[in-house]
Structure prediction request, 161 residues.
Amino acid sequence: MFCDGCGGAVQPGQAFCNRCGKQIVGTITVVPARPNRVREHLQLLGILWYAVSAFHAVSGVILYIVANTLFAPGRGVGPHFLHPLLSAVAISVLAKSAFGFIAGWGLMQRESWARVVALVLAFISLFNIPFGTAIGVYTMWVLLPANSGEEYEALVAARAA
Prediction:
């Protein structure tokens, strides 16, 4: 319950505001507490990063196997640049997958660095249509607003205590 003049806290049945002295007329309504978006969505966000990272890990392993069997040097199949190109793409997909697993674990454990890692991966994932875009937008919706940083740090501090 708050004073409509200064916004100071007012107790039920109080006639005057302690902060500004304004007379309280009428009933005092209770404003419901704003839900903590980060706390409500953090567990699901960690699980989604695990799932997307598992999908990327499987596709990265398959791509690496194809690059080293079908397009291996000396086989004479396809242009010679495909083997190093596909191998490099597979390794980058596996690296992104590893960082996704790390971000998911960090979010679920409420590690202080996990928010930054997840946001960086969210921006990178925006280009992976449709699932990467979806998890990227969802991650940014949960973790990017200004008050989300404060909410996340409060969860980190509560975990440490």
